UniProtKB/TrEMBL annotation:
Key words of the record: Cell membrane, Ion transport, Membrane, Potassium, Potassium transport, Transmembrane, Transmembrane helix, Transport
GO cellular component term, pick one: plasma membrane
Domain of life: Bacteria
Coiled-coil residue windows: none
Predominant location category: membrane
Membrane spanning stretches: 14-32, 44-63, 75-99, 130-151, 192-215, 227-248, 293-326, 346-371, 407-429
Tagged with keyword Secreted: no
Name this polypeptide is given: TrkH family potassium uptake protein
Membrane topology: Multi-pass membrane protein
Length: 446
């Protein structure tokens, strides 16, 4: 549509277009000979896949990051992770701050949409704090990891590895430099690496709005309903999934069985945290039992929380649906959390996001069974949900994908990062209220 002779894009269209342009630019930079150690650069399809995975903070890779890319290539990936994790609008605002430019109303609306905030009030202040929070978490995480890695490698390399993995995991990207697709399996029972990375993943995944309210709690002494739901849902999922993984893998000789009790706990904790769209792993994913793999798919589909660096349908969506089901079972008309009623538009939106997500997973998995003949369905489903949830965990299918399969996963990662609802709004006309309402009708359900 046009406005005063100029093309005007709704916020969803701007976000979808912006992410797409960043991905194309990143892919071009990774095709340059200087990006890879063999001096040939990546093929266009592999560069597009890697750029999409980094910008959409997924972590699925078709080539090993540590052994394929030069320092230049790795820094390109790291920049894409940072821009993709925080959102290009956040970085655009940062440059506006540096140049002393005033943030316009249109830019504030774009920021609101990008951060999934409920209003534009205080949005610029929130962006400033997001930048500070990010700097603090990534610096402290990088410092602690660098100290630990310094015992295993030269100091300069340890510092580089420490900050690369801190930025990657705070943004829930899951890219690593360990080589040979090993991720962090060499530190499966290391308490410092496990706890630092888990902390980065959790705080990167609960959302900046929640982090900001945690920061302000000493003054306000209260949390919004959104923050309460995120914290409770996240805590329940982390505790429950740690216990479930511990039980399911306890006697698995390829995973937990050889470890000490503390090692079993740390590995179970990490494996419960990383499906929340992080992608790093300390246990070899193909070695997990089928039950654990299927449970991991469930966690990956839920994903992180709104306004975070993660993907999935989001914890609040999951909590809202559970609340709606529970209210129906109890014969209640309203969905209530903490003595607050959840509005029907939130319930409808949760149902829409989940339905679109399930539809995407169903279609992509079906297509991959065609393009990747002979592969186990569980492996295909795992890779599909990992891409949609921008997780990055893999059973080993991604490097062996056909060219068409790689394009399908690229589109899935893009849809998962931008958000199914945002894409739906971007490709449809501007939303309008119904001019009239039809008489009520009844449909039998169940």
């Amino acid at each position: 549509m046009k406005k005063k002779g100029k093309f005007f894009l709704d916020p969803p269209k701007v976000l979808v277009t912006g992410f797409a342009l960043i991905i194309v630019l990143g892919a071009f930079l990774l095709t340059l000979p200087v990006a890879t150690k063999d001096g040939e650069g990546l093929s266009w399809i592999n560069a597009l896949f890697t750029s999409t995975s980094a910008t959409c903070v997924t972590g699925l890779v078709v080539v090993d990051t540590g052994t394929t890319f030069t320092i230049y290539g790795q820094l390109v990936i790291l920049a894409l992770i940072q821009v993709g994790g925080l959102g290009f609008m956040t970085f655009a605002t940062l440059f506006a701050f540096i140049l002393g430019k005033r943030i316009s109303l249109k830019e504030r609306i774009l920021l609101q949409e990008s951060l999934n905030n409920v209003s534009i009030e205080g949005i610029v202040k929130l962006v400033k704090r997001i930048l500070v929070f990010t700097l603090v978490f990534e610096f402290l995480g990088g410092l602690l990891l660098a100290i630990r890695f310094s015992f295993d490698m030269p100091l300069s390399r340890a510092i580089y590895f420490g900050f690369f993995h801190a930025i990657s995991n705070f943004n829930n990207a899951g890219f690593d430099l360990m080589g040979e697709f090993r991720s962090l399996t060499g530190y499966v029972d290391d308490p410092l690496v496990t706890l630092v990375v888990c902390t980065l993943i959790v705080f990167g995944g609960i959302g900046f709005i929640v982090i900001n309210e945690l920061y302000e709690y000493r003054h306000t002494k209260r949390f919004s309903l959104h923050t309460k739901v995120v914290l409770i849902t996240t805590s329940v999922l982390l505790v429950a999934s740690t216990i479930i993984v511990f039980i399911l893998e306890f006697n698995n000789t390829k995973t937990l069985q050889p470890l000490s009790w503390s090692g079993k706990f740390l590995a179970s904790l990490f494996q419960s945290v990383t499906p929340r769209t992080a992608g790093a792993n300390t246990l070899n994913i193909p070695d997990l039992t089928q039950t654990t793999l299927f449970f991991t798919i469930f966690l990956m589909f839920i994903g992180a929380s709104p306004g975070s660096t993660g993907g999935g349908i989001k914890t609040t969506t999951f909590a809202t649906l559970i609340g709606a089901v529970w209210s129906q079972i109890r014969g209640k008309e309203d969905v209530n959390f903490f003595r607050r009623k959840v509005t029907y538009d939130v319930i409808y939106k949760s149902l829409t996001v989940t339905s679109i997500g399930l539809f995407i997973v169903f279609v992509v998995a079906m297509l991959l069974t065609i393009t990747e003949p002979g592969k186990e369905f569980l492996m295909i489903l795992f890779e599909t949900v990992s891409a949609f949830g921008t997780v990055g965990l893999s059973m080993g299918l991604t490097p062996d994908l056909s060219p068409i399969g790689r394009i399908i996963i690229v589109l899935t990662m893009f849809a998962g990062r931008v958000g199914p609802l945002t894409i739906a709004f971007a490709i449809t006309l501007r939303r309008q209220g119904d001019p009239f309402h039809y008489p009520k009708g009844k449909i039998m359900i169940g």
